[in-house]
Write a structure and sequence with these properties.
Blueprint: E1 3-7, E2 11-13, E3 29-33, E4 40-50, E5 53-62, E6 66-72, E7 75-84, E8 86-90, E9 93-97, E10 105-111, E11 115-121, E12 126-135, H1 136-141, H2 143-146, H3 152-156, E13 162-166, H4 169-184, H5 189-212, H6 221-236, H7 244-251, H8 255-266, H9 270-289, H10 293-299, H11 305-316, H12 320-324
Parallel strand pairs: 1-3, 2-6
Antiparallel strand pairs: 4-5, 5-12, 6-11, 7-10, 7-12, 8-9, 8-11, 10-13
Helix pairs in contact: 4-5, 9-10
Length: 327
C-alpha cells in the first residue's frame, strides 16, 4: 500500500520529491499537494554511487507551481541540462539553465561549505537534467589528477564560484544514457552508472581546461560584483525598455562583452532574462490581481497579445487566459 504525504505549502524540501512513487529507490510513497495533485510526474532518481559521489537524474513534468529547497554539501557540483529549462538558485545566484536557444550549456558550482539551493517548479514545464555531486573526500582522493587541470584550483577554493561551458555531443550522449541505465535495474547498474559519471567528469574537466585558456571566459570577483549590481538593476525594473547599448553603457561594458559575461553569470542572455522576469510579473498579476490578458501583455512589454500568449505558453505551459478565468 502506498503511503500518502500531503503538501500544503508552496515551498517544500527536496526530500518530498523523492517520495512521489516514480522510479525512486524507495518508490513506496506519494507526495501530493492539498488539492490531491502530484508534485511532478515522470522519472526521478537520486543514487549514492560512492561514499562521496552522488547522482541525480530528473526527467519530469512539473504538475504544480512550487519552490523546492534543500542543502548542498561542500564539494563540486556538475549540472547538465539536457532538455527543457531549469530555474535554480545556488546561494544567492540564480540561473535559467537551458534558456535562450538550442545550444546547451553545463554548469559547475564549487562549494567550500554547506549551501542552500532552490529549484522553481512551473506547472506544465518539462525538464531533463543530470547532476553529479563530488564531495570533499572524493576531491581530496583525486587531488593529483585534478591539479593537472588549469584553473581548477582557484575554482575549488572559491565558495559559489561558477563556470559554464557548452555541452559537447559526447557529454550529452553520456548524460542521456544515464536514464537508460537507471531503467535497466540490472545487477551491474550501479557500477555502470559510476563508470558513466566518471566519464562525464573527465569530459567536464577537459572542457573547463579549454575554457580557462580563454581569459575572456573567466569572471573575476570585480566583474561578478558588477554583474550582481547590474542584475539587481534589471530586477528593479528601471532598465525595462532600454536598448542593449544603453544597458551596456549603464554597466560600463560593450554590448558584446555584457552579453558574454551575463550569460556566464546567469546562464541566460540579458533579454532572455528580462523576458522571463517580465513574464513572471505578468503571471503574478493575472493570478493574484485578476488583470486582463491585454493588460498582462502590456506589463510584460508585448504590444501584440498573440505574441504574449505564445511566449507565456512556452514558458509556463498554459495560456494566460486559463489563469484569468480563476477570477
Amino acid at each position: 500500500m502506498n503511503r500518502l504525504s500531503t503538501i500544503t505549502s508552496s515551498k517544500i524540501d527536496c526530500s518530498a520529491l523523492l517520495r512521489p512513487g516514480l522510479t525512486t529507490p524507495g518508490g513506496t510513497a506519494v507526495s501530493l499537494a492539498a488539492s490531491g495533485s502530484p508534485i511532478v510526474s515522470g522519472s526521478l532518481r537520486e543514487l549514492q554511487l560512492q561514499p562521496d559521489l552522488s547522482l541525480y537524474a530528473s526527467d519530469v513534468r512539473d504538475e504544480l507551481d512550487m519552490e523546492v529547497t534543500g542543502m548542498l554539501q561542500p564539494g563540486l557540483l556538475i549540472v547538465l541540462p539536457l532538455a527543457g529549462e531549469a530555474d535554480v538558485s545556488y546561494g544567492g545566484q540564480r540561473f535559467l539553465l537551458g534558456a535562450g536557444g538550442a545550444e546547451r550549456s553545463g554548469l559547475v558550482v564549487a562549494l567550500t561549505r554547506r549551501e542552500c539551493f532552490t529549484r522553481r517548479l512551473r506547472r506544465g514545464a518539462r525538464r531533463r537534467v543530470v547532476s553529479l555531486a563530488f564531495g570533499t573526500r572524493w576531491l581530496a582522493e583525486h587531488e593529483d589528477v585534478l591539479s593537472a587541470h588549469q584553473g581548477l584550483d582557484s575554482l575549488l577554493d572559491t565558495h559559489l564560484a561558477v563556470q559554464k561551458w557548452r555541452l559537447s555531443a559526447r557529454v550529452q550522449a553520456l548524460a542521456g544514457s544515464v536514464f537508460e541505465l537507471c531503467a535497466s535495474s540490472t545487477p551491474l547498474m550501479s557500477l555502470c552508472l559510476e563508470s558513466r559519471c566518471l566519464d562525464i567528469a573527465a569530459e567536464t574537466l577537459a572542457a573547463l581546461t579549454d575554457v580557462h585558456r580563454d581569459p575572456m571566459c573567466v569572471l573575476r570577483p570585480r566583474e561578478r560584483r558588477r554583474l550582481a549590481e547590474f542584475r539587481a538593476f534589471l530586477d528593479s525594473g528601471e532598465g525595462d525598455g532600454w536598448s542593449m547599448q544603453a544597458l551596456a553603457e549603464r554597466i560600463g561594458m560593450s554590448p558584446s562583452t555584457l552579453q558574454r559575461y551575463f550569460r556566464l553569470y546567469t546562464g541566460s542572455t540579458v533579454f532572455a532574462y528580462q523576458r522571463c522576469r517580465l513574464l513572471d510579473h505578468a503571471r503574478y498579476a493575472l493570478e493574484r490581481d485578476g488583470i486582463s490578458v491585454s493588460d498582462a501583455a502590456h506589463l510584460a512589454g508585448y504590444t501584440n497579445a498573440a505574441n504574449f500568449a505564445t511566449a507565456f505558453r512556452r514558458q509556463f505551459g498554459k495560456a494566460p487566459g486559463s489563469l484569468r478565468l480563476r477570477h
